[in-house]
Fold this sequence. Notes:
Blueprint lengths: L4 H10 L8 H12 L5 H18 L6 H15 L3 E2 L12 H7 L1 E2 L1 H14 L4 E4 L6 E4 L7 E3 L5 E3 L1 H12 L15 H18 L3 H14 L4 H14 L2 H14 L6 H10 L5
Amino acid sequence: MDFPPARQYFYQETHQPDEQIDLAKAALYIAQEEYPHLELEEYLNALDTMAAEVQEQLPSERYPLRIVQTVNHYLYDDLGFTGNTSNYYDPRNSFFNDVIERRTGIPITLSLVYLEITKRIDFPMSGVGMPGHFLIRPNVQQMEIFVDPFNRGEILFLEDCQEKLSQIYGQPVTLQSSFLDVMSHRQFLARMLTNLKFAHLQKEQLTKALAAVERILLLFPELPTELRDRGLIYYQLGYWNAAVNDLQVYLEKVPYASDATVIRRLLNQLGSNF
C-alpha cells in the first residue's frame, strides 16, 4: 500500500479483531498524519500517569457512581479538561495528542480520554453513539447510566438522554433503544474521522478531508456515503476519472438515495452516461 507510515500503522492496528484494536494508538496514528514526528509513547505514558493519579484518589468502596465521580473530579476540576464550545470544528479537537495537551476537545475525543483512564483502573466503559452527541457508559450489567464527558462528566439516566436528544434537535424526538447501542472500536474510529472530515471541510482543506475519508474507507470499505464524499472531493480537486468511478459505485449501491438526482446530474457533466 502506498500510504504514509502513519496510515500503514493505522491500517495494521485496525485490521485485527475489533476487541483487540487499541483505540488510543489508532487515534494517535490518525493524529500522526498531521504531526509526522508525534511520539505515541509520550501520550500513552500521559494516559498511564492520569490513570495512576485517579487510582490514588479512588475510595476504598469502589461503587460505579463513586468511581465516575472520582474520575470527573480529577479530569474536570484538577486537570481542567473542557468541551470546546467556542470553536467546535477546530481540527485540533479531533487530534488525540492535541486533546491531551490542550485539555480541550469534542464529545468523542474527550470520551476517549475518559475511556482510556477507566480501562487502566479496571473499570471498563464503552462508547455510545447517540445521534448528535457522543456518550459513554460503564460495562456493568443492568446499570442504565450514561456519562457525558463533554459536559464535565454529567451522569445521565434514560430520561435525561431523551431530554438531551430533544434539545439537540430542537423538537421532541423519540429515544430509540438503538440510539444507545454500544459502538464497536471501528465504529468509534469512523465517527472520530467523520468529525475530522467535517472540520477540514469547514476550512476548505480538501486534501486533508480526503485523507479522513480514505481512512474511514479503510475501516468500512463499502460505506456508500463515504464513497460518495470521496467522489465529491475528487471532483472538487479535479480528479475527474476517480470522481466518476466513486459516484457511479455510490449510485449502484443506493440508486434511490435522496441525492441520487444531483449525483446523476454531476456525472452527466463529467461525461458519464450513468
